[in-house]
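Objective 1.3, modelling of assemblies. Example input:
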Amino acid sequence: MPPVAGIGLRAPHLAEITRDRPATGFLEIHAENYLAGSPALLTVERLRADYTFSIHAVGLSLGSADGLDEAHLARVASLVERLQPAHVSDHLSWSVTGGRYLSDLLPLPYTEEALEVVVSNVGRLQEALGRRVLVENPSCYLAFTHSTLSEPEFLSELVRRSGCGLLLDANNLHVTAHNLRLDPGDWLASLPGEAIGEYHLAGHATNDADGRPILIDDHGSRVSDDVWRLFADVVRRFGPRPTLIEWDTDIPPLSVLLEEAARVAHAS
Amino acid sequence: MSLTLRELQAAFAAHIVADDRPELIAAVAGDSIPAAARLRVYRHHVFHSLGVALAATFPTVQAVVGEAFFAAMARGFVVATLPVQPVLAEYGAEFPAFIDAHAPARGLPYLGDVARLDWALNIAFHTSLAGRLGAADLAGIAVEQLPSMVLALAPGTVLVRSAYPIDRIWAAAQPGASGDAVDLAAGSVGLLVLRRPDDAGFVALGEGEAAFVAAMAQGQTLEVAAGAAFGADASFDMAGAFARLLGIGALAAMQQ
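Predicted structure (tokens):
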């Protein structure tokens, strides 16, 4: 895919996009929203004639010590087979333990043990899909004391051992760096830029945690100025990539998403 | 000794849905923001996202009880029953039974059935329109064959019965409804929930029709189903009921 700007396809916009076919570089869907026999899948199939798609999963739980849920993996593989997206991605996080799904992108300790788990799970995913996937840096609200690797070191090793690519979410990096007191410049300096296949941008909120501000990745507003500045740094370092505007809560009119996407080309 | 990854993930899940786990808190770096406060961000998000998913699947229940009551009830359900897989449109099958047993909802004895209707509508919505029996499919079948035939309900077609007028409760909960009170003494209903071209919906069945559909859903022959229908309503109109079910696409195409 060329380094274009795209938007997340969300249910409230489906009818308008189907009717007006607005110009945008690509559309990204959440895999888990299209696995239950949703009639929206038929609409997406028709839109494939006019749009490039990417599939972003949130539930594969690549960091689960239990391994991947094979039944869910088979459903995702079937969707990928059907839609033939340009990219498939999920997160460096976990959501499933003991057969229960916690519906959040939960943090991993960055240890050799966790690295082996994620390498194995990403390998299984790539084998099942028959393609390379992209793994996204998560928004973190905590770090584990027994971590032995930094997040970019962990991602670098994951890329080296599994052959996966990376999805760099500039908003997540901003949120994590603030919450964990990291320097985003140092973080980026340790990342293998050539492995990056896609960028994400989104809005975040600021909450109170026992009297201290904590940034929350809620995908519920415009991309902040801080994140645009960080994104400009990212593009200067690594070059342009397909870039997605994500918006999942308090979803605005479609025109707002398209405006945000139009800013991407001028970001650096 | 630090926790293994499996131990850490089990402790994390337990911490989120139950009580604080000291060994997990001890494993979290708590510098400027205490570890417990950092973990609360995740706990909040898990309950929030699952509560939002349940509200999307059970909109009538939420409209009846209001957002705050619903959120508290959803929280109790999440603690008792986490999803077993990540497709949230498929989460909540056990919610109606949970509501039946939920003490704060005891004053709303119809609420569990309202949830059953919401769940059936959710299932129907996520079902393909394909595979429905049409009148033309029956053209080659001799009349005398009909009694011994077994016809299945179309995928996603479900009979929801209640001692309460949950169809009126559903209508009163829709945006723009009149706001008139629903008379709970209006009596029992049998609602056939099904996929329609653009959405999911339901039709109210008479007592005979409901007995007919219930027997078909159990795999009975048309003859046995008709017997059940006449037992429930001596004035049951067999031809009319059959035509109606066909017309709304409630029957599955026959296996070749």
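DSSP finds nine helices and twelve strands in chain A.
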